[in-house]
Amino acid sequence: MNPPPLNDKSLFKQQSYVNGKWVDAKSGKTFSVDNPGNGQTLGTMPEMNAEDTQLAIDAAAAALPSFRRTTGRERARMLRKWYQLMMDNADDLAKLITWENGKPLGDAKGEVTYAANFFEWFSEEAPRSYGDTIPAGVPGNRVFTVKEPVGVTGLITPWNFPAAMITRKMGPALAAGCTVVAKSPGETPFTAAAIAELAHRAGIPPGVINIVTALENTAEVGNALTSSNAVKKVSFTGSTRVGKLLMKQSADTLKKLSFELGGNAPFIVFDDADLDLAVNGAIASKFRGSGQTCVCANRLYVQSGIYDDFAKAFTEKVKAFKVGAGDQEGVTHGPLIHERAVEKVKAHVEDAVKQGGKVLAGGQALPDLGSNYFQPTVIRDMKNDMQLAHEETFGPVAGLFPFSSEADVVAMANDTEVGLAGYFFSKDIQRCYRVAESLEVGMVGINTGLVSDAAAPFGGVKHSGFGREGSKYGIEEYQIIKTVTLGGMGQELQGSA
Q1: In sequence order, what E strands does 133-277 have?
Q2: 179-183 β-sheet, strand order
Q3: Is 296 a catalytic residue?
Q4: The whole model's pTM is what?
Q5: Distance between CA atoms of 370 and 401, rounded to whole angstroms?
Q6: Is beta strand 297-303 parallel, antiparallel or unpaired with respect to 397-403?
Q7: pLDDT tens digits, residue range 103-136?
Q8: Active-site option among 294, 296, 469, 476
Q9: From what superkingdom does this record's organism come (predicted)?
């Protein structure tokens, strides 16, 4: 075992968190968690199953009646304290992220701040959940609405943002007055466990937050959440394939669902763009987390008039990257999460080269560093029938596609089943409106490669899912609207004047 050297060693938990206690799986089984940067085992976590998950659901259901009666202001104070504890322990949380996910320490520190911001944001939303007074169509009636927590929620999060994906779901759930059973990712469970420990310190009551861990039993845990009548809502971030499966499993219990699924983001650079701004935006979007983000640029379309200049400037930036273990000084890009990810990236590069793509930078695995490393790669002269054009690479490969007209590139950008994020660069304000309104995505970045913000709605369209996280809309995913009609409210005043 080689656990990360934390300032507060009590944040490194190797158990699940259920009903305010640290517990093992009933079976006693565990799974190992390895550092993708060097292959060393960090520790173990309980391999929980449906029985263990049911105990967590029972704890959340038992805690719900009292927690839903807390005021928004009370829940706000809990979230605010939780936020502060995350910020106070940011260095240790960043180390955990780097060691189990592989991303460079600087990126990990940025994720901790981003993750904590969701607790801060929803601490401010919790006391401001307003209903409406509605003019009734029937004389003597009065109609108003109230917003109530949906109930016990099941949250399933991915490994690429071990902190941010869980806080983006837990923050609004608690703000609304819901209780939570969260399935943390098997590849990166220690960050979620540390956040649960901070919840305990923040005074979140037992049963309100529950963390279930599993690797081999992930599908079994997911089925337990989706099939339970006690769980009224499931939120999932992950692949489109798994999202469709969870949706089918949830049908019998008619759950409220919100899914943030796969992406294939177009990144468009028009001739009139600011070249330096576009290059820097593409670097930030494409290579953040070594390309392992759902909103990263997957297809880079560059108009013919600026194509060669963009390719040259972009490639120079990529060649300056330093690849290595995330905890090493000067490293800009870490490993991929596992060997399967490397194999997919390698297949996309080989397919592009076979069909005429020209590698300008990278293009090879880096076995001398370890089995999970691949060079940041730039390929020009991409074509629409290549694998990368239709599949999400989820790795450090930037394919440059030439295009001629605005109409052509929008058609190519929309030629996909998914629609999470899209980006484009232009100085023409009229074009900015035209293209933004024409792209079939849930989020558009204009002259920026980053769209993530706790204040901004996050989510997609088409096969990228539905529902929104973050922003003022995020809390609504965890609420129901109740209509109250009060009859017999006559207009006549009683007694004599």
Answers
A1: 133-134, 142-149, 152-156, 179-183, 209-212, 231-237, 256-260, 265-269
A2: 21-23, 16-18, 209-212, 179-183, 152-156, 231-237, 256-260, 465-466
A3: no
A4: 0.96
A5: 31
A6: parallel
A7: 999 999 999 999 999 999 999 999 999 999 999 9
A8: 294
A9: Eukaryota
